Amino acid sequence: MVACSFTAAPEDVALKFLDATAEFRFEEAKEYCDEDTAKFLDLAAGYIKMSNEQPESLDFFITETEIDGDKASVSYTTSKGTDEQTVYLRKVEGDWKVSMGKENLEKEQ
């Protein structure tokens, strides 16, 4: 018997990650990111617990996806009318994962 494996597209992973983080479901969001980003989510979760911030229900709209080998970028806007933003992903053990590593954060500046 041969098992069929399915790798979610970068857009799908980005949307799941964005939905989970916008609604403060950080444990779920960790399923869609690399280890460094998971550490960042732990910090964010701690901050949220100390603040009065409330989760937002947003719709995310993909505007562009670029794939270059094992790296991808997914640009999006939200139903809140935000400017276009980008989520970076990389392949980890064959699966796309959101990666907020130092090199990606420097790209945003």
UniProtKB/TrEMBL annotation:
It comes from the Bacteria. Gene3D superfamilies: 3.10.450.50. This is DUF4878 domain-containing protein.
